Amino acid sequence: MVTASKAWDVAAAVPDPELPCVTVAELGILREVVMEGDVAVARVSPTYSGCPAVQFIEEAIAEALRDAGFQPRIERVISPPWTTDWISDAGCEKLRAFGIAPPQKASNSKRALFGETVVACPRCGATDTEKLSEFGSTPCKAHYRCKACLEPFDYFKCI
C-alpha cells in the first residue's frame, strides 16, 4: 500500500549533497510529503535563494521516490523561508561529529544578526575561537579557528 508515511521515509533518507553526514529531513529542507492520488508530493525549502544545491536536492528526492515506486512531484516552498532553527537536534549532533559547528538556535535574534556569536569548536568544545572568514566551504558556513586546539572548522551560520 502506498502511503505518505512511506513516501516521507524514502524522501527523508536522502543525504544533503554538500553535507552528506545529514539528511534533507534532518536539515529541515524537506518540509512534508503528501499523497495526492498516485503522486507523492515532496515540499522542499532551499536553505537560501542562491543555494547552488537546491536543484540537485530536488532531483535526488524525486529519484529516491521513483526508485521506491512512487510517482514524484517536487514543490519548492519559499514561505515561510527556511531557517537554521529547523535543523533537528540529531542533525546538529551529526554536523558537530562531522567537524562543523552547528548553528546557534537563535536565527531571529538581533544577536545572531548583528552581534558576535560564541562558536564552540566541534572538535574539542572550546569557546575560544575566532572567525577567519565570513564564508567557509559553502556560502552558508563561516570559517573559524579554535585557539585551544588550533584546528580550523566551518560554522553553519544562523539564517
TrEMBL record:
Pfam families in UniProt: FeS_assembly_P (PF01883), Zn_ribbon_PaaD (PF23451)
Classification via InterPro entries: Fe-S_Maturation_MIP18, FSCA_dom_sf, MIP18-like, PaaD-like, Zn_ribbon_PaaD
Residues annotated as domain PaaD zinc beta ribbon: 108-157
SUPFAM superfamilies noted in UniProt: Fe-S cluster assembly (FSCA) domain-like
Sequence ranges assigned to domain MIP18 family-like in this UniProt record: 13-67
Superkingdom per UniProt: Bacteria
NCBIfam families the record matches: PA_CoA_Oxy4 (TIGR02159)
Protein name: Phenylacetate-CoA oxygenase subunit PaaJ
